[in-house]
Amino acid sequence: MKIKNILIAITIMLGMNVGMVTAESPADLNDLQIAHVAYHADNIDIRYAHLALAISENPEVHKFAKTMIRDHEAVNEQALALLAKLGAQPQDNFLSQSLLEGADKLINEMSALRGAEFDRRYAENELAYHKAVNGLVENAFIPNIENAEVKALFEAGLKIFKAHEHHAEMMVKSLK
Questions:
Q1: CATH code: domain of residue 39
Q2: pLDDT value at 93 more than 90
Q3: Three-class DSSP labels, 75-111
Q4: Cβ proximity of 134 and 158 under 8 Å
Q5: pLDDT, tens digit, 9 for 90 and up, residues 26-66
Q6: pTM attached to this predicted model
Q7: How many domains does the chain contain in total?
Q8: How far apart are CA 98 and CA 149, in angstroms?
Q9: What is the number of alpha carbons within 13 Å of residue 176 lying toward its C-beta?
Q10: Taking burial as the number of CB atoms within 10 A of a residue's CB, which of 75, 98, 108, 123 is the most buried?
Q11: What's phi and psi for 29, nearest 5 deg?
Q12: Does residue 37 sit within a domain?
C-alpha cells in the first residue's frame, strides 16, 4: 500500500490522472523499465533546472539549478555506461510516460511565471519532486532491482538525491 501511496503522490504532484496509473504498479517493473523511469526522472529535473536558469534571477535558485544539472547528468552518464556494459536497453513503460507527460504540463505552467512567484514554484516543485521520486526509488525500485550493479547505482544515486531534497527544503524555507 505504501508504494501505491507514493505513486499517487507523484501523479498528484505532476497533475496527472491518478486512474491511469493504478492499472500497474512500480513494484512490478523490471530492471530495464526502472532504469528508463530513472533516466527520464533525471532528465525532467535537468529540464526544470534549465528553465530556472533561464527565468530566475535569484542566485540561490541558480546555484541549486546548476547542482541539479551537474548531479543528474552525472548519474545518467553512469547509468548509460552501466547499461552499455550490460548490453541492455532501457524499456519504456507506463510510469516513464506519465512522468514525461506531467513534466511537460509543469514546464508550461512554470514558464508563465516570473520573479519570486517562479522561484517559489520551482523550489516547491523541486522539494515535492525529490520527495516523491526518492520515496519511489527507496521503497519500490531498490527492493525490486535484481542486478547488483544496477542496485548499487540506485543506492548511490539515492544518497545524492536525498541531499537534493534537503537542499530544496532549505530553499523553500528561504523563499517564503
A1: 1.20.1260.10
A2: yes
A3: HHHHHHHHHHHHCCCCCCCHHHHHHHHHHHHHHHHHH
A4: yes
A5: 888 999 999 999 999 999 999 999 999 999 999 999 999 99
A6: 0.85
A7: 1
A8: 26
A9: 6
A10: 123
A11: -70, 145
A12: yes
